[in-house]
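> run fold Polar amino acid transport system permease protein
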Amino acid sequence: MQDLGIKVLFEGRNLIRLFEGLWVTVEISLLSVLISMVLGIVLGMIMTVKNPVVKAVTRLYLEFVRIMPQLVLLFLVYFGLTRAFHINLSGEVSAVIVFSLWGTAEMGDLVRSALISIPVHQYESGKAIGLTEGQIYRSIIIPQTIRRLVPLAINLATRMIKTTSLIALIGVVEVVKVGQQIIEASRLSVPSAALWVYGVIFFLYFLICYPVSKLAARLEKAWNGV
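> ok
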């Protein structure tokens, strides 16, 4: 039975379809990550502003996104907004919107934490040696912030890649959805197909996420002098 199960992967275009679905996953993930990184940096800088109204608004946004499950946000955007406001949004666009909202909130908080973690005496030392505010940020603050931020941002990107598996539930034909289609088509003839199909999907996610996680760990060790 197991021999028949593994043959499912090589029937017709099944294996190619899995790779095509993986590419959809990668496209949505990369686009969401890029948007999140750019907007998150801006949000993180705004979150350091010493204004109670700004702080309250940004904190409310952050807590809302963190508390609300990503699946609920996907349903809210894809099923709720489209019907309530008669907006024609595809599953792919809805996924990018939701993951960008989530990633921006998380990235913004990482940027905020990295910025406020820089000791005050770093700013004072720069002023003491005659540096302008722009030179202080360019030569002292930004390099240290990047060293703190990059490993955390890479880990966030990994989390976003793995969470994209939820978009199968709104009809996006990515790798998990393709796997479900292959399993359903082989349900009667090859009952063990699920083992092999989901095993391959696990391996594909591992191939993407593991190198990224190792890169984050290596950068963190190198910059911490370990």
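The chain has a mean pLDDT of 87.
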